[in-house]
Amino acid sequence: MSVAVADMLVSLASEPPAGLLPARQQMAFSLGWHIVLACFGVAFPAMIFVVHLRGVVKSDADALALAKRWAKVSAVLFAIGAVSGTVLSFEMGLLWPGLMGRFGDVLGFPFALEGLSFFIEAIFLGLYLYGWGRLPPRLHLAMLVPMAAAGVVGTYCVVSVNAWMNMPTGFRIVDGEVTDVQPWRVLFNSGAFLQFLHMWVAAFMVVGFVVAAVYAAGMLRGRRNRHHRVGFTVPFVFASVAALAQPVVGHLLGMRLGETQPGKLAAFELATSTEKPAPLRIGGLLVDGEPRWFLEIPAWGSFIARGSFDKPVQGLDTLPPVDRPPVNITHVAFQSMVGIGMLLAFAVIVFWLLRARRTDLLRRKAFLWFAVLAGPLAVVCMESGWIATEVGRQPWTVWEVLRTEDAAGNNPDLWWVFGGVVVVYAGMTVGAVLVLRSMARRWRAGQEDLPSPYSPDAPAPAERVAE
Fold first, then answer.
1. Fewer CB atoms near the end CB (10 Å): N or C, the chain?
2. pLDDT tens digits for 94-109?
3. pTM of the model
4. DSSP assignment, residue 59?
5. How far apart are CA 153 and CA 159, in angstroms?
6. CA dist 56 to 8, 85, 138, Å?
7. Which residues contact 39 (CB under 8 A, 6 or more apart)?
8. What b-and-e string marks burial along 353-362, b requiring 16 or more CB atoms within 10 Å of the CB?
């Protein structure tokens, strides 16, 4: 029986709960939107620290101006991320009652630490923002350290939950009840470190390329001053290091799939049957149970997936039809992630090689256009990686413990909730764009302070009336 026919028979034999599809769509939408903001919480403080340190050590006014501007942008993104993150916390219980009702005691500890980290990050961001001219220089700069650390810790806690869903541990099930919960084993499960490292590096890729893209766009419009060059170079350096490190981290993470999640690996490699050695298939889709339209490189699939030219890649036909992931979505997402990641890594290698030969690519429009495109490409790369991870784990929410259809509820009215979330997120997106564009416009006009109505720099009410 072909893979396609078997999957069709399984889908006809079972009726999923009414809340499953809207829960999947809403979670994918809200998490895919929020994760971009989470990247800024992880990576942006480190970039602000570097430009601020450069400004202090070298008395660089441009670097200090960048630090002040980036901190205010970070505050806007942080405020919006607080809203979207709160929505996500409610969604966990609303959309997935079978998961949180059964494993709430298991997941409570990491989520509690993430919430604490969020508040710490908010406190030190506030101290940094309003510390300009009020705190001693070294103490003011030091406010960025706990802010950055809190962002990293909070992200680790969230990613550790996802890693636990891929490699569940730290509990026992007795008579259908979850018992003997070991919170530290859940938090530091065997998959957490590498998966966090993969996400941490991805955050620097996304933020580095996105911020560099903003300044590349400015240079295309003729703003080729030192402010824009420093604003491009600092995040681009971070993005360059991340882009070169990410293939190594991803390879180490992916090599575990052959033992832990063979179905996901089979979907990544488009392997319908076990192959030894397995070829590397570039492109392609599964059509009528057979791979089509791909470029095949013999034996390299085994080396990339298993670290050896001799090890097999297990095929989809070795798994029961009910345990197979959606192959085409998983495969396309995985190859999109790898393809874009390799393109960005190649681009930064070329940039720095030419830079070593004293070729100024920041004067070349072709490179600046590529730098502008690299920002959204990095976002697509990260989103594709999460799609490959999450869709490839299906049909399990908690690997081989809880199926996704059992985690969802049976409420068809969730479509209305999904519609409301789309409206709220669309409003936040429009609001963020308008606020950031307004800030950029006033900065270009020379209004550096941009005081908030409640800040110490704001004029008194009588002064505002007089103005």
1. C
2. 889 988 888 888 888 9
3. 0.89
4. T
5. 10
6. 64, 34, 9
7. 202, 203, 206, 207, 382
8. eeeeeeeeeb
